[in-house]
Amino acid sequence: MRSFVSHLECSLTGRRYEHDRLHGLSDDAAPLLVRYDTHRIRSALNRNAVGQRPHDMWMWRELLPLDTDTPVVSLGETVTPLVSVPRHRAQSAGSVHVKDEGRLPTGSFKARGLAIAVSMARRFEESELVLPTAGNAGAAAAAYGAAAGMKVHVFAPEDTPQITIQETKFFGAHIRQVDGLIDKCGELARAAATENGWHNLATLAEPYRLEGKKTMGLELAMQLGWSLPDLIYYPTGGGTGFIGMWKAFIELRELGWIGDRLPRMVSVQTHGCSPIKTAFDSGHRDVLKPFEPVTTAVPGVRVPKPLGGRMILSVLRASNGHPCAVSDDAVFRCHADLARQHGIHLCLEGAACLAAYQDDLAAGLVSENDKVVIFNTATGLKSAF
Ligand SMILES: Cc1ncc(COP(=O)(O)O)c(C=O)c1O
Q1: What local confidence, expressed as pLDDT, does residue 89 receive?
Q2: Domains in the chain: how many in total?
Q3: What are 97's strand-pairing partners?
Q4: Can you state the percent helix, strand and coil of the chain, rounding each to 5?
Q5: pLDDT bucket at 93, cuts 50 / 70 / 90
């Protein structure tokens, strides 16, 4: 058995927790972070050896929480492509690439987090899982749960896109649609977990989905020849990907696999749900109250008070990044424009990132000479027409 995990750490207090059993939040009700022994990783492995492995999510095994001999629950988590978006001023030094997470099992980046979280749940002999979802996480949990032989229970808002509801049911999960937003679903999932002894896989309520999402950042660094773009635009709901990617960059830097220059991280939300921008603009260190009223049609960002708000805001500050809020109209315009002009079908959340990039370009917050990566977190086919 070989694990490079040293311990789990409370993201609020820094208190250490053992990693040999399944945890939820810390005793201070904050998310737990997985910490690795980077010295040991460095002597066991170098980046060239990793680059020569089969290109999938498991090439990062030493930087993931599973012991190296624990079987993983996998549905084929391929490295996702960086698709170039042609620019109007082709002579500029910069570039825009879409990292297309729609190529993953169940058509979204949620596969990454749930592949790891379900693998860890199976390793600790859990048999029933529960989670709240805006749609894609429920579908991914249902698929990985089916692959692991586990029962999955999902709570989703009533206005969740039908395509993900149907997909979740198709994988055999039990789904309950709730009159309310994801925070209400989160409360119901928590209560159901306590009452029935199910394992709660809600965003950041357990430490391992974050580790799966971290692979987006590891992969990006490898794809760019162990360097990073100037800016990353990421659609931020619960923020696991945002926080996870930053964690990846810090770990890669500690390993000496990348240099010191890290990207400016841009969290993208919409005017109809932008708690991160509201908190950042008010100088707050956390999201203090739920954003209301939530009016956006972009499902992935309908999170009025993310549990990881403090960590998202701290990544924004540490990376010299900024939050963006765009209109739903701009999202729909970018969604259609990119498809018709370039044949790239983004999901609405990915289109929000493109809209934010265009706003930033117009406002001079980003330059034509910058290298930019936009995260398309799901296939366009998941977005309602
Ligand atoms: C397509 C899509 N993009 C973005 C998000 C937000 O992701 P995160 O929780 O990592 O902020 C979600 C979450 O539901 C989503 O489904």
Answers
A1: 58
A2: 1
A3: 84, 373
A4: 40, 20, 40
A5: confident
- Structural domain includes residue 46: no
CATH code, domain carrying 235:
3.40.50.1100
Three-class secondary structure of residue 135 per DSSP: coil
Q: Distance from the CA of 235 to the center of ligand 1, in angstroms? A: 6
Q: Would you state the structure tokens that stand for residue 234, as one six-digit string? A: 């990421």
Q: Are 144 and 114 in contact (CB under 8 A)?
A: yes
Tell me if 215 is assigned to some domain: yes
Q: How many angstroms separate the alpha carbon of residue 71 from the centre of ligand 1?
A: 27
- Report the residue count for the chain: 385
Q: Phi and psi for 243 in degrees, rounded to 5?
A: -70, -40
Domain extent, residue 357, equals: 82-106+208-382
Q: Is 207 in the pocket of ligand 1 (CB under 6 A)?
A: no
Segments in the chain forming alpha helices (H) = 38-44, 47-51, 110-123, 136-148, 162-170, 182-196, 208-223, 240-255, 275-281, 309-318, 328-342, 348-363
Residue 306 lies in a domain: yes
Give 261-278 pLDDT, tens digit per residue: 999 999 999 999 999 999
Nearest CA to ligand 1 atom 6: 237
Amino acid 88: pLDDT: 58
101 pocket-lining for ligand 1 (C-beta < 6 Å) = no
The protein residue with its alpha carbon nearest to ligand 1, atom 2, reads 300
Kind and range of the H or E element at 36?
strand 32-36
Rounded Cα–Cα distance for residues 356 and 133 (Å): 24
Atom of ligand 1 nearest to the CA of 203: 9
> By alpha-carbon position, which residue is closest to atom 4 of ligand 1?
300
- Is residue 292, in this structure, part of any structural domain at all? yes
Nearest residue CA, atom 12 of ligand 1? Answer: 300
